[in-house]
Amino acid sequence: MITDSFDRVLIRIAASAAVLSLVALTLGEFTPVSTQGSTGRIEGQVNLVLPPANAVPSGVYPSRRINRQAPKASEIANVVVFLKDVARVDDLTTTRATITQKDEAFVPRVVAITRGSSVDFPNADPFFHNVFSLSRGAVFDLGRYPKGVTKDRRFTSAGLVKVYCHIHSHMTASIMIFDHPYFRMPAADGTFVIDGVPAGAHKISAWHERIGESESSVRVEAGRTTKVEFSLPMDQQ
C-alpha cells in the first residue's frame, strides 16, 4: 500500500508539472505591450479674443508691394499648440511641408514640422525671390530664383526659424521644428486633438507668430481625454 500511495503522489506531481508547462507555453505565445494604456488624449479649443466689430488684423509688416495682395487666411492658421516638457524622441516620423512665394507673400506664413523634416519653397510669382534665414537653428540662403523653380531646406534642429526674402523685406514666415510629435495646428474653428500623449502632468502652450505664447497646465490620464482651452488676445493694429 505504501508503494501504491507513493506512485499516486508521483502521478499527481507529473500531472501538475504538465499543466504548468502548458500554461508557460501558452503565455509564451503572447508578447506583452508595456506601453499599452499608458497614454491619453488632449482635446482643446483656441479662441482669438478681439474687440467687438473688429476684423482680425494681419501679422505681417506693412507692405510696400505694388502688386495685388493675396487673400488673407484666418489668423487661427498661424497658431501652433504643443507640449513643452516632453522628452526628445529619436525615431521621429518626418514630413515634407510647402511654403509658397505668392503675391509677394509666404503662403502659409506658419508651418510646424518634426526635426529632420523638409520644407519646399516654390516661387509662384513672375519675378525673382531669395529665401533666407539667420535663425540660430538654421542659417541658410537659397539664392535668387525665378517663377516655376522650387528650392528646399531640411531642418535638423528643434526651435523657431524665421524666414525672409532678400528682395522683398516685408515677406516673413515662421517654421516651428519639434523634437517630439505632440503638437498640432488648430482647425479653422480653433479645435485641435493631440493623441498618444504620455500620462502625467504637462505644460502645454498655444503660440502665435505675433502674440507669442499662452501656457497652461494639464494632467493626462491613461485612456482618458483631457480638455484645455486657450484665449489669445488679438490687439488692434
List the helices and strands and how they pair.
Elements: H1 2-27, E1 39-49, E2 79-83, E3 96-98, E4 100-101, E5 106-107, E6 110-114, E7 118-122, E8 129-135, E9 138-145, E10 150-154, E11 159-165, E12 172-178, E13 183-184, E14 191-198, E15 200-208, E16 212-220, E17 225-233
Parallel strand pairs: 1-17, 3-7, 6-12
Antiparallel strand pairs: 1-14, 2-13, 2-15, 4-5, 7-10, 8-9, 8-11, 11-12, 15-16
Task: State the helicity in percent bands.
Answer: 10-25%
The main sheet comes to: 5 strands, mixed
- Secondary structural class: mainly beta
Given the C-alpha coordinates, what overall shape results? globular
Task: Characterise this structure.
- This protein is mainly beta and about 240 residues long.
- The protein has three domains: about 1-30; about 40-85 and about 180-235, Sandwich (Immunoglobulin-like); about 90-180, Immunoglobulin-like (Sandwich), CATH 2.60.40.420.
- It has one helix at about 1-25, and strands at about 40-50, 80-85, 95-100, 100, 105, 110-115, 120, 130-135, 140-145, 150-155, 160-165, 170-180, 185, 190-200, 200-210, 210-220, 225-235.
- The strands form five sheets. It has a five-stranded mixed sheet with strand order 6-12-11-8-9, with no helix packed on it. Strands 13-2-15-16 form a four-stranded antiparallel sheet, with no helix packed on it. Strands 14-1-17 form a three-stranded mixed sheet, with no helix packed on it.
- A hairpin with a 4-residue loop joins strand 4 and strand 5 (about 105).
- The longest helix has 26 residues, at about 1-25.
- The termini are far apart.
